[in-house]
Every structure is written in C-alpha cells, then in structure tokens.
Design a protein that fits this description.
single chain; mainly alpha; 1 helix; rod-shaped
Length: 37
Amino acid sequence: MISLMFWYLKSWIVLMLLGIFCNIVLGLSFSLVYVIS
C-alpha cells in the first residue's frame, strides 16, 4: 500500500517536471520565433 502511494507520488512529480520542461521549451521556441520574425 505504501509502495503504491510512493510510486504514485513519484510518477506525479515526474509528470509535473515534464510539464514544466515542456512549458519552458515552448516559451523559448515562441520567443525565438518572435525575435526572428
């Protein structure tokens, strides 16, 4: 039971980190397109 909760928490943290990383990459690419155009 505890291991299941730990795995759920770990996967949630990984998903959050992936979301933050995707947001940073999207923001950087959008700013690059804005600067170039």
